[in-house]
Description:
Elements: H1 3-9, E1 13-18, H2 25-34, E2 40-43, H3 48-54, E3 62-65, E4 79-84, E5 87-92, H4 104-112, E6 117-119, E7 127-131, E8 134-138, E9 151-158, E10 161-168
Parallel strand pairs: 1-2, 2-3, 5-6, 6-8
Antiparallel strand pairs: 1-9, 4-5, 7-8, 9-10
Amino acid sequence: MNDKKRKGTDRIVRIVVISDTHGNISNFERAIFQQPKADLFIHLGDHESDVDDIRLYLRGRNILSVSGNCDFGSQLPDVGETVVSGKRIFYTHGHRYHVKFGIDGVINEARRREADIVLFGHTHIPVATYEKGLYIMNPGSLGHPRGGSPTYGIIDITNAGVVLNIVEVES
């Protein structure tokens, strides 16, 4: 197959996953500007108003979000599901699944929903792994990281598969 044909079939869909911004709009903005070609942004809760503020920068871009344990009075759902390039993504903040005490609950729910990818936040600790057919990601925190720099996640979906990455915010 020549290179021109290959390029046409190897489209990468990039998803930026953000969680626990807790009012740190500057890190949120940096993460967005670091990923100008992202196709989708998913915010996993804890400071819903940050998403409202950041929508100004994302005009015409797709952003999904769920509520977190600090989003008091939120009208957003606790969980969400979407399909991107044939991959079912289950996303939640994680507090309802008690992820600070282990991730079995959120993994079991993702499997029950037949998800290919599960996304959660709440712990402020980044995770990007693969377990028995399920891609698992916690992007860490842009607002109050635990044990390191502010981070977010990137998911690249190609014809060849799924790649998860944790990225530090550049200052």
